Amino acid sequence: MRPLPIALGAIMIVVGAIWTLQGLGYIQGSAMTDQTLWAVLGPILAGFGVGLIVVAVRRRE
């Protein structure tokens, strides 16, 4: 288990969640608010973050 990929994956999940919430209009005060692009890119980034964590946890050296 490597701590750097796990930390990076966790950051990707948090940023993806924030992008999603901004894109859907739940977080106000940004140029990203109510923009469909961020509502789509957010879950994609979060999904990559989950995948990175899964790979990091399964990898054994």
Helix content: over 70%
| Number of E strands | 0
C-alpha geometry: elongated
Note the beta-strand portion. under 5%
What are the segments in which pLDDT stays under 50 over at least 5 consecutive residues?
none
Largest sheet entry = none
Oligomer: single chain
Counting structural domains, the number is 1
Set down the secondary structure blueprint.
Elements: H1 3-24, H2 36-58
Helix pairs in contact: 1-2
Protein name: Integral membrane protein
Transmembrane segments: 7-25, 37-57
Keywords: Membrane, Transmembrane, Transmembrane helix
3D architecture notes:
- The chain has 61 residues and is mainly alpha-helical.
- The chain has one domain (3-58).
- 74% of the residues lie in helices and 0% in strands.
- It is built from 2 helices and no strands.
- The protein has helices at 3-24, 36-58.
- Helix 1 (3-24) runs antiparallel to helix 2 (36-58).
- The protein is elongated.
- This is Integral membrane protein.
- It comes from Nocardioides glacieisoli.
- Keywords: Membrane, Transmembrane, Transmembrane helix.
- The chain crosses the membrane at residues 7-25, 37-57.
